[in-house]
Amino acid sequence: MYLTYKNENMNHIMVCAEFPGTTDEQANEIYAILNQRNWTRITSQDEEFNNIWYGTFNRQMLEKDCREIATRNFMEAAKKYCSEVQLTILWGANKPTSQGFTLIS
């Protein structure tokens, strides 16, 4: 799967999020909340990787602040349905590659 990035003047965040114990309906409600907060869910054709999210932040923000906001967004989205959220957050100040795409696997 490939992602393209339109704006180089942004902080890029990738979040791998697990919501243990949620039903499909609850997970869909969590996803809707995250979509409202401008997070984009990245999926593969076979839905093997359906827990990866992408977001951008203002270039002037510090990495620490981007990570804190991402963590808060995901925890708030899940608080109604989960007692625990497992997150892995990757941050980048530039495009991942010079060709403008990256492979997620």
Fraction of helical residues: 25-40%
Mean pLDDT: 79
Order the strands across the largest sheet as they lie in space: 3-4-2-5
Rg (C-alpha, Å): 14 Å
Short description:
With about 100 residues, the protein is an alpha+beta fold.
Protein described:
The strands form two sheets. The protein has a four-stranded antiparallel sheet with strand order 3-4-2-5, covered by helices on one side. Strands 1-6 form a two-stranded antiparallel ribbon. Helices cover 28% and strands 30% of the residues. It has helices spanning 24-36, 63-78; strands spanning 2-4, 10-18, 40-42, 52-58, 86-92, 101-103. With 105 residues, the protein is an alpha+beta fold.
List keywords for this structure.
two-stranded antiparallel sheet, 105 residues, alpha+beta, single chain, four-stranded antiparallel sheet
Write the layout of secondary structure elements.
Elements: E1 2-4, E2 10-18, H1 24-36, E3 40-42, E4 52-58, H2 63-78, E5 86-92, E6 101-103
Helix pairs in contact: 1-2
